[in-house]
Each structure stands twice: as structure tokens, then as C-alpha cells.
Amino acid sequence: MTNLKNKLYSDFNALTLNFTSCKNKSLEFDIQVQNLTQQQNNLMAENSQVNKKNHDLQTEMKTLTEEIKICKEQKLSQALQIIDEYCPKVEQVRNCRSCQNGWIHSQSSCYVVHNPESWNQKTWEEARENCTRKSSDLTVVGSEKEKVKTDKSWKDEEGNMKGFWIGLRAEGGKWKWMDGSDLTNQTWIKQQATDGRCVTSLQNREWKSVRCTEKNGWICEKKALSV
């Protein structure tokens, strides 16, 4: 009987140990399952982010492709327009010239004179912006010969114009041109350079210093092409 009890006790202890071992392994398995589940969730979240980023990149690439296409079409259209302006067709033959249609060729430059009605005249800044859109700038006078040409050419046929803006304005107490150079011949304008003042030109009248916010006509200038 004692041996039987001992055997039963021994078997019970063995079962207890096995149960404890199984329980511990079950806990370890549960932890591993939880870890694997968490890793799976993390991977799914990362995959979702990657998919979203990939979708965003594809959308951005599509947008950029469209913008590049539009830009190329605009550049081509502008190039063709410039070709037509500088080299118009006459009986299917292109006749190229130094300046675009409507521009005046003088020495190495092209000029266009804007003499609008009073309601469409512009401030100095507005006039310069208009020139910029034509790939030009307000005219810069570099020599006495050019000044004489400018003073004689830009006139108001109807006597309505107060003056034409040129590319000269006061900066830091000096008269400066649009190319950044100083006015070297001070006899061209006798008035002092006061900030906020710009210069106009008109036939039979000295250059005049007026407020840059006044409205006037304007003269644009750009380099002539070599043809």
C-alpha cells in the first residue's frame, strides 16, 4: 500500500510539473502570438503608408507630367510667335528682321513707344512691368547721340502727353538706370535725385523729374537681333 501511495504521489507530482511546463509554454506561445500579431499590424500599417506614399507620388508625377507638357506647349507657342514676329512670311518666304513688328530699330536696339489715352497711362512701375512682359525694359540712354534720337523721336502728336517714362529713377540720392549704372551726364537732367522720383522724356522739353506714381506713356527697349 505504501508503495502504491508513493507511486501515486510521484505520478501526481510529475503531472503537476508537466501541467506547469505546459502552462508556461502556453503563456510563451501566447506572448509570441501577440508579438507576431503586433508585428503583422505594424507591417500592415507600414504597407498602408507605403501604398499611400506611392499613390501620392504617382499623382504628383502625373501632375508634373501635365505641367511639363503644358510648359513645352507654351514654350513652343511662344517660340513660333517670336519667329512669326521677327520673321514674318511673305508669299511663303520668311523675311527676318532685327526688330519685331511695331518696334523701331535704332543702332543695336529695338524700341516701342506707348502713347495711350490718359485712362490707360501707367505709373513708372506699371510701365516697367509692361516692358518686362515684352522681354524688354524701360529704355536706357547710353550716349548723347542716343539721347538726341530719343528726345526727337518720342513725341505726343496730339499734345496730350505729359511725358514718356524712361528707365531712370532716383535711388539713394542718385539717378540710376535700369541696368544698375549711374547717370554720368548730369546735364541731361538738372533736378536733384530725390527718392520716389522718376524721369520722363518728351520732344522739345528737358528730361523731367516727376513722382513715380504719376501716370504717363512709356518707352520699352531691348537688344536688336543680328540678321
From TrEMBL:
Protein name: C-type lectin domain-containing protein
Pfam families per the UniProt record, alphabetical: Lectin_C
UniProt keyword Disulfide bond present: yes
Organism: Poecilia latipinna (sailfin molly)
UniProt KW keywords: Coiled coil, Disulfide bond
Localization: Cell membrane
Membrane topology: Single-pass type II membrane protein
Positions in coiled-coil regions: 33-74
